[in-house]
Design brief:
heterodimer; A: 436 residues; D-Maltodextrin-Binding Protein, domain 2; 2 domains; two-stranded antiparallel sheet; 18 helices; 10 strands; 44% helix; B: mainly alpha; MetI-like fold; 0% strand; transmembrane helix (chain B); membrane (chain B); transport (chain B); transmembrane (chain B); Carbohydrate ABC transporter permease (chain B)
Chain lengths: 436, 276
Amino acid sequence: MTLKSALLAASALVGVAATGALAETTITVATVNNGDMIRMQGLMDDFNAKHPDITVEWVTLEENVLRQNVTTDISTGGGAYDILTIGTYEVPIWGANGWLVSLDEGMSDDWNADDLLPAIAGGLTIDDKLYAAPFYGESSMVMYRTDLMEAAGMEMPKAPTWEFIREAAAAMTDRDAGINGICARGKAGWGENMAFLTAMSNSFGAKWFDEDWNAQFDSEAWANTLDFYLGMMEESGPNGAANNGFNENLTLFQQGKCGMWIDATVAASFVTGDDSTVADKVGFALAPDNGLGKRGNWLWAWSLAIPASSDNQDAAKTFISWATSQGYAELVASKEGWANVPPGTRTSLYENEKYLEAAPFAQMTLDSILAADPQNPTVDPVPYTGVQFVAIPEFSGIATQVGQQFSAALAGQQTAEEALANAQELTTEEMEAAGY
Amino acid sequence: MARAITPRKKLMWTVLAWGLGLLIFFPILWTFLTSFKSEATAISDPPVWFFFDWTTENYQAVLERSNYPLALSNSIAIAVGSTLLGIVIAVPAAWAMAFVPGDRTKDVLLWMLSTKMLPAVGVLYPLVLLAKWLGLMDSRLLLIVILMLINLPIIVWMLYTYFREIPGEILEAARMDGASLKDEILYVLTPMAVPGIASTILLNIILAWNEAFWTILLTTVDAAPLTKFIASFSAPEGLFYAKLSAASIMAIAPILIMGWFSQKQLVRGLTFGAVK
């Protein structure tokens, strides 16, 4: 080997080694399968160009499978993931357990925490420490068919009452033509019908627990909530409503079979999108109330958090800074248009004229998010936080069982009284067993 | 005297058999059709059967978004590896139970089967902690061992019923000729039991292929098989049926093809022995 070729080989080796050193940190991100997250995976070139020393591996899973996976990992200190996509329900519980890393330090300089929407950031903060960075936020609102509303001779106010919704639903219903005045969740599950019903119950003055953690399903307010829901769904809801979740109702609405649909604000982009047959006939209004000072809308955010068991916390913070920054919103806008920017996390987005122009539902989304208060979700004071959930570990299990009771009532398998009595009994039992 | 089968009866049975067959096959057919539809067509009501714009965009999207070759190779390694390891352990066990049964053999067999009744989630945390301690999380080896343990009772039971069909005298004759225990199992018993072993292997590969609790919970990226690949295409909020169908077809295609070519052994395996 000549000296020249030896030198060449050596420099090639150094080059390879240097590349290896640059790409030495690999972070694994566990995430849900939603449009915004998939879009981010398609925009990774930008991150890779800015941070060639960090390789990002994605594990995309269905929401419930993801929850099972990351809960197992984080509670055993498994360290399989460096970044978790988690909901508003998990953050306060996991943060308080010491399972998450605080994001108050170590984020990049241009990541502006003060710009986060207060209602969203409040749900991710424990003892003044932020434990997750919101990537996408949502509330719920009324989506309605403007043509059917007009034909019914009614006008949707910006902030309707439940009475108005029920009346309008009855007026729009034309079962021979396959039109149901109201579509709402009925499928059992803490994130399914119980998200809708818990938020709705807040506006009826109901609550899950009193200040001593006693279950409150035997209260008049809960009886009113469930009677109203069942009555309205019987008069104007679709057949088989007890099996309907987000996707089923979305399908019905897109095919022109719902007069109104109360669900996540994210649905706005679907019902006005290309797949919708009624895209140009959709109006939006705030979730209904009963004049008691609380509206029936929820608050949810998918956020990125770092488990304490991660070995790559600095690289993880670098990634989260990129993914939840204003710069990322601009990146999405430049590649796919402003309407596709993940909504509901930053004040600056709602001050951006271009965004407000591109997304007709933007103002209503913001108003809905701001109308929710996870710290004081109910009319009466309660010992818990969370609008459509109670931020305690036992909630998901209990609420899924309660959801089955309410879903059975909607399917006509039992009366509202029986459902509430069963809910009261099982909640009391579970809470006592958990030591409350 | 054998009863005559009238043409009418024959026709009735044929129609019934085809009807049942199609009914069982229908979900796969529907998944196949949906995988070539657009997301909007996939949820249309009334459903569209054959006349729509066939598109392969779902398959493209699925291939773009995930590492199918890795998931496929993991599934093959885990399913085949756990089954073969199970066979190596189960053949001597089944031999002992079939040819030299003790007083408690029946009890042992029943006890083994009873472990299948244990809810998997009950041992989730001990297993995760053990795997973490051994440094085996997200490895093929871990899943090979765990799926082998889960399916071992079934492998032993199946082999036991096959071995019971083999006359013990033949093995005795081999022993008389001076065959050692190893020779007896390897050169006399195994060749006679090849059809039984083959169907056991096929059935257990299918069981391991479809296992979706441990394979999803104990893997992250490197050892993630096709079950985890499918789980990434479903969502509670959004339209995904067409892509999920494409992912499902890609995940079941290899095992479907294997099942097609080995139908005879599979049917024999399912109707042999205890339930014959």
